[in-house]
Specification:
The complex is a heterodimer.
Chain A lengths: L1 E23 L10 E11 L4 E6 L5 E7 L3 E14 L15 H6 L23 H9 L7 H15 L1 E2 L10 H7 L1 E2 L1 H14 L4 E8 L17 E7 L6 E5 L4 E2 L4 E7 L2 H4 L2 E6 L4 E11 L2
Parallel strand pairs in A: 6-7
Antiparallel strand pairs in A: 1-4, 1-5, 1-13, 1-14, 2-5, 3-4, 8-9, 8-12, 9-10, 10-11
Chain B lengths: L7 H5 L32 H8 L3 H18 L2 E5 L7 E5 L2 E9 H25 L4 H4 L6 H4 L21 E8 L5 E7 L6 H14 L1 H6 L6 H13 L7 E5 L8 H11 L2 E3 L4 E4 L2 E6 L2 E10 L22 H6 L4 E3 L16 H8 L11 E3 L3 H9 L4 E5 L14 E2 L5 H14 L3 E5 L4 E7 L2 E16 L2 E4 L4 E4 L15 E8 L26 H34 L5 H12 L10 H15 L7 H20 L4 H24 L4 H25 L8 H8 L3 H7 L6 H10 L7 H14 L4 E2 L2 E2 L1 H14 L8 H23 L1
Parallel strand pairs in B: 3-20, 6-7, 6-10, 10-11
Antiparallel strand pairs in B: 1-2, 4-5, 4-17, 8-9, 9-10, 12-15, 13-14, 13-15, 16-17, 17-18, 17-19, 19-20, 21-22
Helix pairs in contact in B: 3-7, 15-16, 15-17, 15-19, 15-20, 17-18, 18-19, 20-24, 20-26, 24-25, 25-26
Classes of the chains: A alpha+beta, B alpha+beta.
């Protein structure tokens, strides 16, 4: 599937900001056999006085910009064309959940793709005994890692309500868990904490969803902004599985990956430090359209 | 130091070997002074012989000299928590006066062991942030990096400019019962204590200057000299600055940051002093941005850059990691080096040493087992009574981790089973460490020498000739006689460590040889320091202004005892208008002024003489005491006089001792501007036609100009003469015009007073304000003019801030 993507993130400041430094992570990744970035560009207005691109630890293309002069608003735009392959259908080769630890112990690597990075805790996701207890309830004897992850994904989808007003970007999984509400970020965080508590390495995926569904299908939740889902390590043979608890589906050709990380802190689309007072308003608009 | 029962008899009688009488090593414990047979080691002969010839009173006199030195030098470290309502407090450096003596030959062996270790640590961190061979080859478990909060992913693959990650390390070492040294902990993040070691040395030599001079003690200065030289060599451009990067005055070892910066002649900076421009780290100074080439970092890595490291950090510099990636900055030590302090790593050091340097460790580390591995976990469980169990990823040694570690032998039987389960479940997060026994060293307690456990903190610096050890350092002394290392966590003192050779030792100094003398002008003043100096000047002057008004008020109140008399009521109203509510004779807002001055001064400790700091704190202490006790009237008037005198003492110290450069100018401008504002406001309020009787005389008194007025005007006080003397007289150091003239003179000397040959906005405004007032006549000075003048002076302050502190 070939998509044209556009993203607009705008920041409007009450009082002009200055000396603003941002690290931007919004360009889709190129992933062998899965996704290919055909073309893509990030623009910033007002024009940045300084601009540097670098690859972060997990392999994401990041752009660092500095807008020194006072400005009342900042607009970050990304446009890209991406080729996405439908995921291959595979048999469940993942081990029983109790056997995963041995596989993990046999893996002597800290390369960016190593599941050791995803065992937790991570900057935004400390261990949480309440979520851990919730995860244990979902456990059935003899279940494989993959079955467990899929069951947990379904359960979160069923028991949690999508509510854009209930949480903010800074909410903790514990807060969202308590009210059983939130958005993709909260659901992904809760599922990651739950999986890690069972000894299953799990990480955060940020990306985009196709905006208009194919004819006859329902529109997916979370398509009007950047989306988030979960990647689960299911053992050496299976590798990673990507599950979207917001929509209770496996990430497929409607999901476009931007970044992998341990949690939101690793992949936040924009991290900024600026001089300014007062409040700011944030605008986000996303369009993901199949190319005819 | 406990007070000695210095009775006449004791004072008169020499101790004659008293201090060592009854001194004996504890059973099964090594002692620094006594050898295995209980004989005094040769290196201690002279010190002990001299001590034993001293009377108790002489000994106390000597100790008091050391204490006085530390007090006068203002040596302190900050303590957190249980300090009453204050929360944090400054604690005097707890010196133990008797030094620890170590034989030069033995020290050479210690040095070899620690140099080997420093080299090993360098290779280890290069592998951790580089190829990760140790993980791939199954030597280092991947979790120890991947789950480690000090494994800073943005730094992976970032090679330090110059090739080295580590430049300054310290080691905590202890001596076991067999007499051999052990490494208890490695410090690589931001090792503290080197400055304290220096001060400890100075203090101890105050007590024993004669003994020090005749013992061949290795000097410390050359160590710092060599390190300073090494840092100089890291500059990539001649214009690059070298600075100490501090987390700020709230940090427990801030004194040391300021001390080292002053001692080595580097700038003392905080994260907000720095900004990154085109991938270069620059310091904001009053003369603009200046490049920084080398930072001695005393701030934990994760706080250094909120953009790429801890996003919640408010003390970092956004973009610093970017500057490191581009290779424009040398950091001592590299960001991420805290990972080497991870306790669990100690378990792998022997294998890592064999793999990375092909050698066994000359000095072993304390035996450590990481419980993430089955056989190691079982070993710890089976030998609980010899173990301390603690967090695997902790960077603190177990005797310093605020009670996070548990002693296996201290557990009851029932608890031991629970520990077994704990190890099984959370093994990867835990380590077991052998409870080591430390050696003892003689400490003077209650009139005699008593064995107390000790460990050494040793410092290593990378110099142009490789790693160099500070010959000495300091010894941490336990407070009781429990010799297990874990007992070191409670209280304790620090003693100087003398490395003593048979023959004479070189006596280096930090000064370069005379023929190479150059006069370096002070570097550019950081904007934040200028800001603090300016406000220090303003707060000090504000306090003085308030004191003068309050004294005049109380003198009159002492006569009439009627606070509602027109003049007193009027002055009370004025005080209220400047936020001084007279609920007490020494009002709380006055104290706050002084506290604000202290706060400003605390941010620039490196630019301040310890004398000035002590004077300022003494002023605050007295003011607080008066606030509680003093009654209105005569008592209060006297209190104000005392406070004014102390304030003048501080001002005098600054005036006499501060180098006349940019910093001094900002402090002075702050004082002049505040004094000008004070006088302008007062004149506006008290010299109007409907001012109460006696207001003009009181004004002259507050303005310290009664005598001058009497001499200069052959008439009684009148509105015009008062305005002439207090507003317009260019020779009266209390007049408004005088302040504006002084400001103008100082401004001429500031950097960027001229931009492209034209006056800067600030300079122009200062000129305009001065000449505007200079042409005024006393008749024209009315309330409206004063109000306008006040507003313009406030505006001048804003422009100053925008020009130099922004």
């Amino acid at each position: 599937m070939l998509y044209d993507l556009s993203l607009h993130m705008g920041y409007v400041y009450d009082v002009p900001a200055s000396g603003a430094r941002h690290v931007i992570r919004v360009l889709p990744l190129s992933l062998p056999d899965r996704q290919r970035l055909v073309a893509g560009a990030v623009t910033v207005t007002p024009t940045a006085e300084e601009r540097t691109a670098f690859l972060d630890f997990f392999g994401q293309q990041a752009t660092a910009v500095l807008v020194r002069a006072p400005h009342e608003r900042l607009d970050i735009r990304m446009q890209a064309r991406v080729m996405v392959e439908p995921p291959a259908i595979t048999a469940d080769l993942s081990p029983e959940i109790g056997k995963l630890k041995d596989e993990l112990d046999g893996l002597w690597s800290v390369a960016p793709a190593s599941p050791h990075h995803l065992t937790g805790p991570s900057p935004r996701l400390p261990h949480d005994p309440v979520i851990a207890a919730y995860a244990r309830q979902a456990l059935r004897p003899g279940q494989t890692v993959r079955e467990t992850a899929i069951a947990l994904c379904a359960r979160i989808h069923k028991e949690f309500t999508y509510d854009a007003e209930a949480t903010t970007v800074d909410s903790t999984p514990a807060e969202a868990f308590k009210i059983r509400r939130g958005v993709c970020q909260d659901f992904a965080h809760i599922m990651i904490v739950a999986l890690r508590s069972l000894g299953v390495p799990a990480g955060y995926v940020s990306g985009f969803l196709r905006t208009i569904p194919p004819p006859g299908k329902e529109r997916l939740e979370g398509a009007d902004a950047m989306h988030a889902w979960v990647r689960v390590w299911c053992g050496e043979a299976t590798g990673y599985l990507e599950l979207d608890p917001t929509n209770n589906i496996q990430a497929g050709s409607d999901h476009i990956v931007v970044a992998y990380g341990r949690d939101y802190a690793d992949v936040a689309p924009v991290i900024g430090v600026l001089k300014g007072y007062g409040n700011q308003k944030t605008i986000q608009a996303v369009d993901v359209v199949p190319v005819k | 130091m406990s007070k000695a029962p210095a009775t006449e008899r004791k004072a008169a009688q020499p101790l004659v070997s008293d201090p060592i009488l009854g001194y004996a090593a504890l059973p099964g414990v090594a002692d620094e002074m006594l050898d295995a047979r209980g004989e005094i080691k040769p290196v201690w002969f002279n010190l002990i012989a001299r001590l034993s010839r001293m009377s108790e009173s002489e000994l106390h006199e000597r100790f008091a000299r050391a204490d006085r030195y530390l007090r006068d030098a203002g040596v302190f470290y900050r303590t957190y928590g249980a300090q009453g309502s204050q929360g944090t407090g400054e604690r005097n450096w707890p010196i133990s006066h008797v030094p620890v003596l170590i034989d030069g030959d033995e020290w050479a062996a210690v040095s070899r062991g620690l140099v080997q270790r420093a080299d090993l640590l360098e290779r280890l961190i290069a592998d951790i942030y580089g190829e990760n061979r140790l993980v791939q080859e199954g030597i280092l478990p991947p979790q120890l990096l991947a789950s480690n909060p000090e494994f800073l992913r943005p730094l992976v693959g970032v090679k330090p400019v110059g090739g080295h990650y580590l430049h300054f390390c310290s080691f905590e070492i202890g001596r076991g019962p067999d007499g051999k040294w052990w490494v208890l902990a490695d410090r690589t993040q931001a090792p503290s204590g080197a400055g304290f070691a220096l001060e400890n040395r100075v203090a101890t030599t105050r007590a024993f200057s004669d003994i020090y001079a005749e013992s061949h003690v290795h000097r410390l200065a050359s160590f710092f000299g060599a390190f300073r030289q090494a840092l100089q060599a890291h500059k990539q451009h001649p214009d690059d600055r070298i600075a100490v990067l501090s987390p700020g005055p709230a940090n427990e070892t801030y004194f040391e940051h300021a001390y080292i910066a002053r001692y080595l002649g580097f700038m003392l900076l905080e994260g907000e002093d720095l900004t990154v421009v085109n991938n270069r780290v620059m310091v904001r100074t009053v003369a603009g941005l200046k490049p920084v080439g080398v930072l001695w970092r005393r701030l934990d890595s994760s706080y250094a850059d909120p953009l790429e490291l801890d996003q919640n950090s408010h003390i970092g510099t956004p973009g610093m990691v970017q500057a490191l990636r581009s290779g424009s900055l040398t950091l001592v030590n590299a960001l991420g080096s805290g990972i080497l302090e991870t306790r669990a790593l100690l378990a792998f050091m022997p294998t890592i040493a064999r793999r990375l340097i092909g050698e066994d460790l000359m000095m072993p580390s304390i035996a450590t087992w990481w419980c993430g591995q089955k056989s190691e976990r079982e070993h710890v469980a089976a030998n609980l009574e010899r173990m301390v169990i603690g967090p695997a990823y902790s960077r603190l040694p177990f005797f310093d981790d605020y009670g996070q570690s548990v002693l296996g032998s201290g557990l009851r039987e029932t608890a031991r089973d629970a520990i077994g389960d704990w190890l099984e479940k959370d093994g990867a997060k835990l380590v077991g460490q052998e409870v080591v026994t430390l050696s003892t060293t003689p400490v003077y307690v209650d009139g005699k020498l008593t064995p107390r456990p000790m460990s050494l903190r040793v410092f290593a610096a990378r110099t142009e000739d490789g790693w160099q050890l500070m010959p000495g350092g300091f010894a941490r002394i336990g407070s009781g006689d429990d010799v297990s290392a874990i007992a070191m966590q409670s209280g304790g003192r620090a003693a100087d460590v003398w490395i003593v050779s048979d023959g004479p030792v070189a006596k280096p100094s930090l000064l370069p040889p005379e023929e190479s003398f150059t006069r370096n002008m002070p570097g550019s003043l950081p904007s934040r320091a200028a800001d603090n100096l300016y406000w220090l000047g303003r707060y000090i002057e504000r306090a003085e202004g308030a004191l003068r008004i309050l004294r005049a008020w109380n003198l009159r109140y002492a006569e009439s005892a009627d606070p509602d008399a027109p003049l007193l009521a009027d002055v009370s109203r004025y005080l209220k208008s400047i936020d001084i509510e007279m609920t007490k004779a020494v009002p709380a807002p006055l104290l706050r002024n002084i506290e604000s001055a202290i706060y400003s001064a605390s941010n620039i400790r490196d630019r301040f003489s310890p004398d000035g700091w002590l004077a300022l704190n003494d002023l605050a202490k007295t003011a607080r005491r008066f606030h509680e006790a003093v009654q209105p009237g005569d008592d209060a008037a006297h209190a104000m006089t005392v406070l004014l005198r102390k304030l003048a003492g501080f001002a005098g110290l600054v005036h006499e001792n501060m180098y006349r450069f940019t910093g001094w100018r900002f402090l002075s401008i702050g004082r002049y501007l505040e004094r000008g504002l004070h006088m302008t406001r007062l004149l506006g309020h008290m010299s109007g036609p409907d001012a109460p009787d006696g207001a003009l005389d009181m004004l002259l008194e507050i303005g310290d100009s009664v005598m001058t007025h009497r001499r200069r005007y052959n008439v009684s006080t009148a509105r015009l003469t008062v305005a002439d003397l207090l507003a317009l007289d260019p020779l009266n150091p209390r007049s408004v015009l005088y302040q504006l003239n002084e400001i103008r003179t100082e401004v001429e000397q500031l950097p960027n007073a001229f931009v492209n040959g034209q006056m800067s906005t600030f300079y122009r405004e200062a000129m305009r304000l001065h000449s505007g007032l200079a042409v005024m006549t006393p008749e024209a000075m009315d309330e409206e003019v004063y109000r306008k003048l006040e507003a313009e002076m406030e505006k001048l302050s804003d422009i100053l801030g925008q020009t130099y502190f922004g």
